[in-house]
Amino acid sequence: MQNKQLKILGGIFALLLLIVLIFENPFGKSEDEKRAAEAKPLFPDFSIEQVSKIEIIAKGETTILAKQNDQWVVATMNNYPADSGGVQDLLEKVAEFDDSRHESDNPKNRAEYQVDSSGVEAKLLDAEDKTLAHLFVGKNTPGIFNSYVRVADSNDVYVGKGYLQSTFDKGDRTWKDRTIFKFEKGLVTSIDIVSPEETIELRLDSESKWQLLQPIAAAANQTEVENLLSYYSELKTDDFAEAKELTAYGLDSPISSITANLNDGTTAQLLIGKEEDDGGNIYVKRDDKDTVFMLSKSSVDRLIKKSDVFTEKTTPPEMENTTPSE
Q1: What are the angstrom distances between the C-alpha of 73 and each of 22, 63, 80, 243?
Q2: Which of 16, 94, 153, 261 has the fewest CB atoms within 10 Å, measured from its CB?
């Protein structure tokens, strides 16, 4: 009996010892933990709220992002709305940079780490054009998930978290906001789809059920309509087309269109033009904007569907058993 009690007490002691080792760490912190605890920001006076302009130089091209009335625009692209999420991500990365992982202070290593003109240069300024942060973002580290960073006018190279060149340089995708439409799908009361084959009219009834009114009157497949609205209400472009006459894109006389009518009187109408000459993307535009977007054929097919897709399939009633009983 005494041996059993000793075993129980020994088990309790071992458990308590394990808890102490985990939470108290009596043997001290690791070197990485020590560096992280003692780290200082690379830009101690930097404040996200103060940034009003961002200049990015990559591959010899300069992109300027500017804040106008609390909205970010691409100033070098006719003040087109900027990818606000991407801008916020960039700002947060700059605010997070610290000196916890120092890699080199040898200026000869700049090219190796691509923290010179071969990388991405970024300058963040306030409303008075005062520089808040000026840095070079280099290639990713051997571990892939981090990148090299150098403060301008300094030889010190540090390691920053994340694959940062894609955060600072959008390349061919540009910094433009890729949103075509963003609206609350629950406010839509009717949908009209026009194609060369047919005109489809969907309406929400008094019981908040979708009904197909054209080309036939029938109950609508609620799931198909909801899937359409989920996609259309947050539609993003695959690419941007060059500025040309609408005739070049078949948008002077669109072959198809889709319109969502909202209960506040607004509409979201997308006009569908022709395919690219190489048979790739399809040209589209909003009826109320000049910008011509490009969507993949599969994306357009998710919008311009056939009426039978929206028609609720009903199961015919089972035939009564007319076999005479014995």
Answers
A1: 49, 11, 5, 18
A2: 153
* Residue that the structure tokens 């300027």 belong to: 64
Smallest CA-to-CA distance from 213 within 194, 196, 191, 229 is with 191
Q: Which two tokens stand for residue 155?
A: 């030889």
pLDDT one-digit tens code per residue, 144-192: 789 999 999 999 999 999 999 999 999 888 999 999 999 999 999 999 9
State the first-to-last Cα distance of the chain, in angstroms, to the nearest integer.
Answer: 79
Look at residues 117, 147, 109 and name the one whose alpha carbon lies nearest to residue 56.
117
Query: Cα separation of 125 and 48, whole Å?
Result: 10
**Pair of tokens at residue 19:** 């808890």
- Whole-angstrom distance, CA of residue 175 vs CA of residue 79: 11
Element spanning 185, H or E: none
Report whether pLDDT(241) > 90: yes
**Position 73 pLDDT exceeds 80:** yes
Q: Note whether 129 and 255 are same-domain residues.
A: no
Cβ neighbors of 160 (< 8 A, separation 6 or more) are: 93, 96, 97, 137, 146, 147, 148, 149
Strand partners, 282: 275, 295
45 C-beta neighbours (distance < 10 Å), count: 8
CA 82 to chain centre: 12
Instruction: Identify the helix (H) or strand (E) that includes residue 161.
Output: strand 157-161
The span from the CA of 93 to the CA of 2, in Å, is: 61
* 126 inside domain: yes
Residue 90 domain flag: yes
pLDDT tens, residue by residue, 83-131: 999 999 999 999 999 999 999 999 999 999 999 999 999 999 999 999 9
Full domain range(s) for residue 301: 185-310
Q: Give the total number of structural domains in the chain.
A: 2
